[in-house]
Amino acid sequence: MRETVLNGTGHAVFVPGEWRSLAACLGLSPRECGIVRAVFDGNSEKDAAERLGLSPHTVHTYLWRIYRKLRVQSREELLVRVFAEFRALPPLKRAGNGGTRNRQESRRRPL
Fold it and tell me: Which residues contact 51 (CB under 8 A, 6 or more apart)?
């Protein structure tokens, strides 16, 4: 599973706002979320470490802790868990806006 998880159009599945919502729901710190994103992008531990400015050992330790926290045992299970959590999010949170209305909608005046 060393490839970026993409939708049918070749774009990454989750946008930054969706990652923030997922991190909050899963109880992940910003650093842990960065590690999970690196897994989604198909990075090895060594590549993730280079990308994040960490040692490979630190990335390995983070992954081990993330696996324990999310009760998964592999990268594949991690991907499934994150997708399952995303599907369980309410639609507004899925959009990555934390449940708030979008700017255009909030500007509308009643008729």
Answer: 38, 43
